[in-house]
Amino acid sequence: MTLTSFGPANRIARAPETHPLTWRLRDDAEPVWLEEYQSKNGYTAARKALADFAPDDLVQSVKDSGLKGRGGAGFPTGVKWGLMPKDESLNIRYLLCNADEMEPNTWKDRLLMEQLPHLLIEGMLISARALKAYRGYIFLRGEYVTAARHLSRAIDEAKAAGLLGKNILGSGFDFELFVHTGAGRYICGEETALINSLEGRRANPRSKPPFPAAVGVWGKPTCVNNVETLCNVPAIVLNGNDWYKGLAREGSDDHGTKLMGFSGKVKNPGLWELPFGVTARELFEDYAGGMRDGYTLKCWQPGGAGTGFLLPEHLDAQMYAGGIGKVGTRMGTGLAMAVDHTVNMVSLLRNLEEFFARESCGWCTPCRDGLPWSVKLLHSLEKRQGTREDIDTLLGLVNFLGPGKTFCAHAPGAVEPLGSAIKYFREEFEAGVAPTSAAPVPGLGQPQPIPAGA
């Protein structure tokens, strides 16, 4: 299955004015190489940036656009760029692209890298100019073999065309770009763990401050941005901030468009570029087509495995950080997952927490010991061998591993779905207390009747 067959993205009219990330996609899902990319206005923004903008002007433009990070944290990109030192003597600076896309249920960056590799390269070229960075690295998830091959070919094409290397387009600006494939650790999505891994060290997060903008790769000023974030930069430079802000729906304080999706037992699982502020119901019903015949929606996650579960009644929430925040969780990566009525939440959470426990770097005690503890308790409840105290202990772990209580954001993201699952489906956890003569728990070995009208 090709990525673009995940949904109707190719069957919806896309235009540069409304779909800056995806309008160049081919209907056959083949990569857009240099000649075709340039015929579709490719590198026009880079030429404009190099000829008409000073580096500080580029930083200010991105800051004024309101572009925020698309990796899940949502930090303002222009503000992050502005943290780089102004001292011109610090002439060795790095731009890192975080392409270590290991968030379960997320594949948005893969689409861009496999089918529009030159869009990422152009975005990095402009960003490097703004940051005065002379070298860039695309830190790529090792399993993305096709993306690595396509990016490497696109880099070679750009070099041959004078779009990378020395004195790019006669501007006097030099920028080299390399693809670095990682060894496959979820923790590398944390920017300082990524930096450590790039340096050949163990992928542990670093203590901050100092932040990477001051002391990053090999001790030099470094900026780390997500793939989708960098791919927004060319359109902002080309079309301006007012246009970019006007893309979002009314009510959203996030600007531009976002790659959003829905997976699970929906009729049309897919990935679409949509304006911030669309409702989750629109994404679920109009784009994903609702649940398959015979299944009903039990709950959903709005943006990857590290976001809290929401109920069907929350589908009217707008898809932007503040909109999802109003119903109690985070926007995350914007790729939602539908959980159907046959799934037992204890089993689902045990599976999720096993992943997070395995991917912990082990640097801090709450994460290293707390996540395996949650897995052990969930195993007991799944086997109906748990105690009521186990549920209280799980809630205690949700608190002890929450934001600000661990070395990085790995553990808080890991326990957020656990806390929400207990909040909304506590009876399924209580059904795992032994001994019990309660009715069968959905998903634990017995088929469930399909509700009338499903």
TrEMBL record:
Its cofactor is [4Fe-4S] cluster; FMN. It comes from the Bacteria. This is NADH-quinone oxidoreductase subunit F. NCBIfam families: nuoF_fam, PRK11278.1, PRK13596.1. It catalyses: a quinone + NADH + 5 H(+)(in) = a quinol + NAD(+) + 4 H(+)(out). Residues 346-391 form the NADH-ubiquinone oxidoreductase 51kDa subunit iron-sulphur binding domain. Its EC number is 7.1.1.-.
